[in-house]
Amino acid sequence: MIPRRLDRPDEAGRFGEFGGRFAPETLMPALAELEREFESAWSDPDFRAELNRWLSSFVGRPTPLQEARRLSKQLGVRILLKREDLAHTGAHKINNAVGQALLAHRMGKPRVIAETGAGQHGVAAATAAAALGLECSVYMGVVDIERQALNVQRMELLGTEVVPVAAGAGTLKDAVSEAMRDWVRTVERTHYIIGSVVGPHPFPWMVRELQRVIGEECIDQLGGEMPDLVVASVGGGSNSMGIFYPFAGGEVELVGVEAAGEGIDSGRHGASISAGRPGVLHGTRTYLLQDADGQVQEAHSISAGLDYPGVGPEHAYFNDSGLATYDSASDLEALAAVDLLAHTEGIIPALESAHAIAWVSRNASRLAGKTVLLNLSGRGDKDLQTIAGRRQ
Amino acid sequence: MTPIREMFATLERAALLPYLTAGLPTPADSIDLFRAMVDAGADAFEVGIPYSDPLMDGPVIMRASEVALAAGTDATRAWAVLEQVAGLGKPTLAMTYANPVMQAGWEAYCRRLSGVGAAGIIIPDLPLEEAGPLLEAGIAAGVGVVLFVSPTTDPDRLRRVAQADPEFIYGVSDLGVTGERQAVSEHVVGLSARVRAVTEVPLVLGVGISTPEQVQAVRQLADGVIVGTALVRRVLEATNAQEAARALFDAVRDLRTALE
Fold this sequence. Notes:
The complex is a heterodimer. By secondary structure, chain A is of the alpha/beta class.
């Protein structure tokens, strides 16, 4: 049977056996309201036109599709880069943040909150909130505040309150939990702009709809040509789902690259699909890093954006149904890929995106002569401190 | 009639259900703290199973989970504490999260609860829509499943929760996660009235109820009251298990007095 992508999850919010709505009762009415409001906005031509105006004049869409000529020559693989790093604020996260901020505005919620790992989603949410006149608080783990100091300054300049989260490992998982706790308290006047295709229904579906513009633009820009393979990094999975979805169920091979951290065997990684098993975290059933008792384990990655023990439920569905395959790349491979892209193309990629480059580089011989579309999801300015630290 | 329902039917006042995380200050000492609360007049217990990601809990109970896990309260030791607490003769409910139960299997988990003498289970990230398999497993194993309503729950949804016939309805008395509040929430009177209007399923109020004064303020509104954070905080502040047990005894006695 040919696997099929789903237009939307079923009534229970499930993609196959993944997804759902494992949320505290206090949030259930808000989630139902959000589903109704998003449905109504998404089928409203005025809302879509307004979003498109923001995407073109504020975000700078469409982002370019670039032939990576020197990298292609060096690897013997034709590589096309989708330049999400050139979107306003430096990553694909802004597509979703602007969409959800407009939705919050439409719902009459004066305040938005967000979680952030690498800081890119936090900056995107802070930016969209400032541009729409919304109050904004961003939850960020203390470890990430340390390694992404530049993005903390950016958020504060934009008028956002950055709330440090010391619980757990002080990274993305803990930031999501704390943002959800805020939302349980403030749900009547607050919208939670979740930053990836994770969380309880309707978030995974809504964020995918807001990010699929990446893949749809690629199809337009390719002008009828189809790549052999699309590759993107996977943490929660929004940049990858955004570029995969429009291609899914067709001839094009889709490969998601998770964080292997210090190596899958070391146990210090973020490869939920490659090394986890199904469970519930942050309101959704998906692949999860956990121990035998069902305690959620800490993820590890040099890239704060991939440092998450779960993954979007639609990716879990893509994996199990064969719509996409998932592999991983290590911290060291990602660091080498930063150098590779910087030296061949004059682009410093985010450490997240570098995982996708690393995968192509490692698989160059099997990809020889093929055309690979790679989502360059963000730029690397935020990572300079981390990269410099690893060189000493 | 189940032990929990029987307790509500027999008592002529609202029941006091203290919450305490299992394994505090250590798995070995844990039972002493529950025993002190029995001596002070606790009617039933909500035993928190330490979990890595307690989404519905505020900083105090989060910290308690971390302390208990660090003290070695893995699943095996948590089950042992639960069995000891149930052995004290008061109806005992496990409070945990969806993932550990799902990993064990809904049916296997409920059978094991029954096996250790626990009367019920509370899972705050398992709303009505996701609770079907647990409700079935609970009936099969003779374990009562608790469902939640909140100030944000509309009347239609409230009716559907009641129709699922939970062991009791956990009325979340305030927006937000578990923790102490300055005063009883403005939502609580309306919440109680809405529940009472549609069902005879027992109502137990929790979240943001900490002091004897607050317990006194809500005692006419429900069949029971859950106090958690205020008790857990006393345990975390104590320097050893004996001091914790004494502090709990005093606190629970004062809460019980407020219900008379």
